[in-house]
């Protein structure tokens, strides 16, 4: 397994390491439930250094990149970020990405580890102005209602100024870091893109604060699921389109991107499955792969599911047929006919992400 720059520092804290997409990653420290609740109430730090990062510099490279994603890069202002998807010629989702314009002539793109090699091949081929900086970059996520206070006390004055989905290059201990007000938990939070050499010092400095504890992939998954954030490779892949994956708000129809004509036809025709929120009334939870039924009729399949610690019952995401995608439908899932209901996202409605 590959190791992040923080791997040894994490092991000294007694975390449980698992193989995640070929990386040695902490799944938990003190326990998933405890880490989940700590993130919701105070602040947790996550090692996300396994993810992929790219710098896109120069107008030619930016325009070429803009022709690959579903959102409008030309209107993205410096200091702001935008969520979107890279698509195939058939309209399928290669990956979802965050694109940050860090200067008038520079973008910073963040992709998932599951598609890192594919994305790298695609992006680095479009222009000499695209550089894969994944191997030289560590990523630390600082998430929770007290994250702004912790970072400002550490000297990150920009943390107090950044609005949701904004970013800024900052300096810490002589290192240049990219600070973005983004995250995957539904809480007020930031992502720090750090040179590998500075990662351990920053990680340890964060943990010196009484409010801060480390959290692993287990809590990251329950946190993202409670607010309905999809997971690349699990809730969508090349077999699903952005329309099916409920990403229609992130499609700029007046721009060009691979598979646009196919998506336009799918939008006009309708009749496609769509990723839909489902929940149970108790701790039992739908699980990935469960088939969904209305009586004896199969109407979909669960892609993500689990117990939601902050809501106290099972939650999940499922691709459902037309006629079942609105809140209020009573269905069953899995071999034991678990009772589920379609609902409106998010499951957890007290998140602080936009505050």
Structural overview:
With 355 residues, this protein is α+β, with helices and mostly antiparallel strands. Among the domains are: 2-47 and 140-226, 2-Layer Sandwich (Gyrase A, domain 2); 273-355, Beta Barrel (Elongation Factor Tu (Ef-tu), domain 3). It has eight helices and 20 strands. Strand 16 (291-294) and strand 17 form a beta hairpin. Helix 2 (32-41) packs across helix 7 (217-226). The model has no long low-confidence stretch (mean pLDDT 98).
Notable traits:
355 residues, Gyrase A, domain 2, Elongation Factor Tu (Ef-tu), domain 3, 6-stranded antiparallel beta barrel, 8 helices, 20% helix
What's the architecture of the domain at 2-47 and 140-226, going by CATH? 2-Layer Sandwich
* CATH-defined fold name of the domain at 2-47 and 140-226: Gyrase A, domain 2
What low-confidence regions span 5 or more consecutive residues with pLDDT below 50?
none
User: Percentage of helical residues?
Assistant: 10-25%
Radius of gyration: 20 Å
Number of strands: 20
The largest sheet has its strands arranged as 11-12-13-10-4-14
Q: In sequence order, what are the helices and strands, one letter per element?
A: EHEEHEEHEEEHEEHEEEHEHHEEEEEE
Dominant shape:
globular
Number of alpha- plus pi-helical segments: 8
The major beta sheet can be summarized as: 6 strands, mixed
Span between termini: 38 Å
Please tell me the overall pLDDT: 98
- Look at the helices and sheets and give the structural class: alpha+beta
**What is the CATH superfamily label of the domain at 2-47 and 140-226?**
Probable tRNA modification gtpase trme, domain 1
Strand content: 25-35%
- In CATH's first tier, which class of the domain at 2-47 and 140-226 applies? Alpha Beta
